[in-house]
Amino acid sequence: MSSKTRVRLTPSQRLSRGLKYSTVGPVDVTRGAVGLGVDSVRSSASWVGERYRSSQVARQLKEEIAAAQDAIANLPETLDKARTSRRRRRPRLLAAGIAVAVLAGGAAAFTIVRRSTQPEPSPLPPTVEVTPKP
């Protein structure tokens, strides 16, 4: 069993091989030149995309810094807003406390009702002997 592996040539290797050999030269020269051109365009497009993304990140960072500077400049108003939002939290805590109390009361009521519906053990002795005789 013989295994034939075909080695793929890079565009620059194909170009140099095309210039070296005369029989397959024109085809390899053309394919090598086109391959180098495509690689160059792909690399340039990647570079341009990376530059665009980095400029977007820089623009967003500038906007966030400007927003932080506005918040610092308006610090008294920002603190007042924070204090009013804390006051709104108290009714939520009160509602949560009432809900916990209602659940605890319901659990206690359920326990009391369940115990009252269970029959009392009979004070009479059992009618059948508990220990069997061999």
TrEMBL record:
It comes from the Bacteria. The chain crosses the membrane at residues 93-113. Keywords: Cell cycle, Cell division, Cell membrane, Cell shape, Membrane, Transmembrane, Transmembrane helix. Pfam families: CwsA (PF10814). It is a single-pass membrane protein. Residues 114-134 are annotated as: Disordered. It is found in: Cell membrane. Belongs to the CwsA family. Required for regulated cell division, cell wall synthesis and the maintenance of cell shape. This is Cell wall synthesis protein CwsA. It comes from Mycolicibacterium rufum.
